[in-house]
Amino acid sequence: MASSGCVVVVGIACLDIVNTVSAYPEQDTAVRASSSTRARGGNAANLAAVCSTLGRDDLDLEVAFVGSISDPSEDPAAQFVLSDLTGRGVDTRGVEVHPGCSLPQSYVTVAADTGSRTIVHHRELPELSLGGFQAALDLHSNPCWYHFEGRNLDLVVEMVSLARARLGPHGKISVEIEKPSIQNPEKLTRLADYCFFSKEYVLAGGWSSPEHLMHHQFELGLVDTHSAFIVCPWGDKGAYAMSAQDRSLVHAPAYAPDMVVDTLGAGDTFMAGFIFGVVTKQLELGNALVFACQVAGRKCGQMGMDVVLPEGVNGVGAGGYWIKQDTHWVQRAHSTDLSLSLIHISEPTRLLSISYAVFCLKKKNITSLPKNK
After folding, report:
1. What is the CB neighbour count within 10 angstroms for residue 309?
2. Which of 101, 170, 280, 371 has its CA 20 to 30 A from that of 274?
3. Looking at the predicted structure, is the pLDDT value of residue 34 above 50?
């Protein structure tokens, strides 16, 4: 495996107060929580932690979190979150500390009967400044991927431009567009290699499906029309994606755990799995979707986000993924073995300068499905 480099995740960290109840309470009622825990939260902090945990056996992968945080010497919540991140191998040297502030907090109610979660968030901490981001850039000498939360867009656009200048020719930038309240996200998505759009954003924007959104983005030039990838995680329906090169819709089914226990952070876990799969396993789009769906699905079957993949499975299911060709769906079998089969013919094949031949064989398992997949 080639050297992975450093995945730098830029966004927020917060403290989650998670209360688990038997069923979501009705309005104006009092219920007893079966458990109450503190956990690290925030999209970027979660993504960094999961990506680092997945890569704990990969000595070539580094993961760094960059964002604003309250002073850990004053705020126990900040100290708790930083300790959690560093304990999972995340580099936190690039955080921008704001004395006299409190770390953002999310109050989470998890319903045990469905695994659903409801979040009330409170924030008064300043956003990461451009100066804070510039200082963090100098700490990571070998970045291979920058991921940005889509927030405070005008400032993040400047950060993306600075990050692009630090990346090598094969480095990537991804952005997350989650909240429906985001205005003019194309200012950011046009600069990215990978654009993650949440289901919430897609439906609130009036698009009828992920495919509708993706074609709209490409046709209007709201993303890079030459090389971008659009990815939409879609809950229990799995995930969808499309590349600028062929504009074919790709679908990976969800990985269903035996029982849905906790969906908090499933989207962050999905993105972490996707980025990890592309960076460390060099997975192409369809296989990266399969990998990310299984990581997110396994997370939903447990409390917390410390996903452990089964030995020998390599984190992927046997079902493969699907590509929409015209109005038909075609199944592609997933392969966890990224090597090619080689046949080396050692006898001269022609009396010219080229006297040896190497053939690369790739086995395909293709099944056509009816139109109504």
Report:
1. 15
2. 371
3. yes
